[in-house]
Amino acid sequence: MDAAYREELDYLKAYAGQDWLGFGPIAGAAAKLLRGRWTQDAENELMLRLVADLLAAGVRAGELTSSDETPFEPWPGDAAAVLDRIARELKARADSPDTGDICWFTVLQPRSG
Predict the structure, then answer these.
(1) Contact, 23 vs 12, CB < 8 A?
(2) Band of pLDDT at residue 113, cut at 50, 70 and 90
(3) Which fold is adopted by the domain 3-106?
(4) CA–CA distance, 11 with 1 (Å, rounded to integer)
(5) How far is CA 48 from CA 38, 66, 80, 105, in A?
(6) CA 63 to CA 113: how far, in whole Å?
(7) Distance between CA 100 and CA 113 in Å, rounded?
């Protein structure tokens, strides 16, 4: 893993640990890493790689809810199922996803009590 990729991944992991991470920053990181070699397929592939590495680091994908008690509902299934779902969503799009599209990411904090 090269230094530029590691820097972007570390930023995304920190973001997910502090706030809800949407696809906007992930798409931005992929575009930055691709620089002049950007295509939609290359961006989608790199976003999936970033998401796979986020999931491996303990970040979860899911939906925001209207509940104050449970504001985030993780998607069911293992990392492979989540990646497959995201890959299908990306393939169906004609453009890059923005924050709020597809899903959200976060690090689930243990409940105190």
Answers:
(1) no
(2) very low
(3) NMB0513-like (1.10.3510)
(4) 15
(5) 15, 27, 11, 13
(6) 24
(7) 31
Whether the CB-CB separation of 45 and 21 falls below 8 Å is answered with: no
Task: Check whether 111 has a pLDDT greater than 80.
Answer: no
Q: Where are the beta strands (DSSP E) in 1-113?
A: 60-64, 72-74, 104-106
Extents of the domains making up the chain: 3-106
* Chain segment 95-110, per-residue pLDDT in tens: 999 999 999 999 987 5
Residue that is written with structure tokens 């998401």 in the block: 51
Q: Tokens 């453009």, residue?
A: 95
Which residue's structure tokens are 């796979």? 52
State the residue for tokens 């890059």: 96
Cα distances (angstroms) measured from residue 101 to each of 1, 5, 51, 82: 27, 23, 14, 15
